[in-house]
Amino acid sequence: xxxxxxxxxxxxxxxxxxxxxxxxxxxxxxxxxxxxxxxxxxxxxxxxxxxxxxxxxxxxxxxxxxxxxxxxxxxxxxxxxxxxxxxxxxxxxxxxxx
Length: 98
Description:
Strand order of the largest sheet: 2-1-3
Largest sheet: 3 strands, antiparallel
Number of helices: 3
Structural class: alpha+beta
Distance between the termini: 42 Å
Strand content: 15-25%
Number of strands: 3
């Protein structure tokens, strides 16, 4: 079985660019749609919603494959940093309890 590695590589690069696009606009999204899920596809904000279920419905309605859209939460950079710090602290506490 052969795989089209170039297609996988280009899809991964597109996804990384969408993630970077989201990060560049995070504060803007937080101002417009605080604490909502935001979907990015091909360098564009294509949907936002209060819940992942609603966001997935919107992606279906737009005929955007859910597995190809980048989804992030419109939280501030400070909230993101705090969440990452709490997750790291939790991971450390679990590993030290083994």
